[in-house]
Amino acid sequence: MRLVIIEDEKPNATRLKNLVHDISPDTTIEAILDTVSASVAWFKQHPHPDVALLDIRLADGLSFDIFQQVSLQCPVIFTTAYDEYAIRAFKVNSIDYLLKPIEKEDLRQALDKIHRQPVQTGPTEMVQQLLEFFKQKEVSYRTRFMLPFRDGYRTVLVEDVDFAYYAYSTTRLVLKDKSEVVVTQTMDELEEQLNPAQFFRANRQHIIGIHSIDRILHSFNGKLQIRLKRDPEREILVSKEKVPLFKQWLDK
């Protein structure tokens, strides 16, 4: 079996690769891609694989955007860190869904189903129905975090969060009073749970709040550099690929 992984978090992509090889050592992983644009380019230039594993959120948009530019002729298995994107209703021959962190047995069952029920055409029509489903679905975003504190718990409101960052295998929220709290969510999970009107995933290490930005400067190779009001020494770069999305986010 030939397989493509589309995932913008390197640790997640590596884990998926290892799981696939554990489940099916004979499977060939044709490519590991991390953006919509790279995926579209690859599918236009190569024969389509037997199955594609697609993270829903990528660095430059939703993986659904791939289907607007390429008629994918293979089954797909979507992966996501947050159940807001649950697509269990679309578990048919040409599409499946796995919730992160992905368990080996769940992935095995999804791949087995594709083996048992091969399809002749790609999932483009089903994805269109999925997009309509998302448009109609009311999204509810996180408003608070409950965190361990001394001998009990404390509540941190999302409106008090300035930005979030990932370092040394830990996700931290920086609050408007400059204090920091550790949360159990991954950056992927935070990105899904926080209101995108208020927060933007600038890069793999940082999610910034709209009110945290002090200045935006041009950087090298078409990138942008963000300076924060409460942490002016921190350097946050927005990649050239994400600059258009960042500008759209600001210009609302």
UniProtKB/TrEMBL annotation:
The modification 4-aspartylphosphate is found at residue 55. Keywords: DNA-binding, Phosphoprotein. Pfam families: LytTR, Response_reg. Residues 147-252 form the HTH LytTR-type domain. The keyword Phosphoprotein applies. GO terms for molecular function: DNA binding; phosphorelay response regulator activity. SMART domains: LytTR, REC. Residues 2-115 form the Response regulatory domain. This is DNA-binding response regulator. It comes from Chitinophaga flava. The lineage of its organism: Bacteria, Pseudomonadati, Bacteroidota, Chitinophagia, Chitinophagales.
